[in-house]
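Fold these two proteins, one after the other.
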Amino acid sequence: MQANDTSSVSVQIRAGVALIDGDLTVPPDALGLIVFAHGSGSSRFSRRNRAVAAALVRAGFATLLLDLLTPAEEEIDERTGEYRFDIARLAHRVIASIDWATGVPALASLPIACFGASTGAAAALIAAAERPDNVRAVVSRGGRPDLAGEALARAHAPTLLIVGGADEPVIDLNRSVMGALPAAQLVIVPGATHLFQERGALEHVAELAVRWCTRHLASHPAKKGLTRAAAS
């Protein structure tokens, strides 16, 4: 990938015995890297996460969309739901992806934020707690931060909790962790349901995410570009 090319490249990341797939996009003079952790029963092809990622790329951020489950695990999960609430497994793979990014020369100096949806929000917060020197911010969309457990108190990265105004159970769950998260802000999108399918709701989420990442990442230095060799 050349400096003027913002097309995605496919990457594979080792996470213990598993190999997970990702799609990496790096715009010229990237301001930071946003690592996406998808929610229950989803994947790196999530339409909602890809819409938010596209807005972040337009704003100058690199994005890494991940499959947190292997193809074999996804097949089992589709039948049984066995892995979608395995927060420890999901968090381990977000952490492995952060460690991978810090080892890629063209990404190594980029400040990192994690964007988590649903159960992926808990994985993102655990990753922030485990890699405090790398993760500078967290954004949760319709997330389950309560599932991060004791890691909440160690997740010092500024955290934006975005919840739909009609998603009352998840509003309550997000409010319940506000006292445990050291640096959290809750924003409720009026009229939006859990999947933010209402007109303009997802655009609102993307705008909030861009503002949060710009505020907390854009002041840090970044390197330019990414080659296909570096991403392989």
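Now the second one:
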Amino acid sequence: MASSPNGSLTESHSKPLVWVTGANGLIGNYVVRLAPKLAPNWRVRAVTRAQLDLLDFNAVRRKFEEDRPRLVIHCAAITGVAEAQAAPALARRVNVEATQRLAESAAEIQFVFFSSDLVFDGQKGNYTEADPVNPIHVYGETKAVAEQIVLKNPRHLVVRTSINGGISPAGNRGFNEQLRLAWKSGRPTTLFKDEFRSPIFAGETARAVWELVTKRCAGLFHVAGAERLSRWQIGRLLARRWPELKADIKPGSSRDFPGPLRAPDTSLNISRIQNDLSRPLAGLVGWLTANPREPF
């Protein structure tokens, strides 16, 4: 460990270490990138799949014992509904078993797990943290099971979020990136008028999580945008932001979707967390208006 000339630890190595898994994903990348500003008292290790396979449980345990992090922010997951539906055993291994092993290693420290609004069936919308979950596909099931595992520890925190937008290392993780790719290629896009979410900029999700960590919050919190928007409304907002792409969009219905079942309204009530933040979470409309030059 590096020391200063007088023998004391250097500033960087005197800071407690945080592991951020899934650091090459959308949210994980923002958690890491914004840490110097939002969490200057932490030293961040960005854990990627290339560095550490979370399914190699023995290797993870050894590395955890070597590093001795004081916080784990667990963003890594299989997040695609279709991907999880096509490979349910893998989805359960990644989303449930890997989470359980990490949470066990982190039993005595802070642990943050990212879950999803898709633990709900979407029959009512405006879900609070107290509402019972009822997932309708494998992805939602894995997240619901993992939530219960994590919440058994009173030190641990579950963050349920909705669809996140922003700029990811791969260029295709955010809902905005997926639309931009389609429109740049000239593909017509059908967007559902009857499917509602609570979209949020991933940088705002990262900000909220770092504030919860700083306040040592535990339990379950919804972290999402302050507006309930349909896929069609989201598409129209982004088409106006990117007029040069000449988006070819048309409204449609989720009832006509040929893939896995879709939950019609998984919008999240975020009243609880709004009271714990230094600045309330905005809706997508307000955020886009206030940040016209933010890469998105």
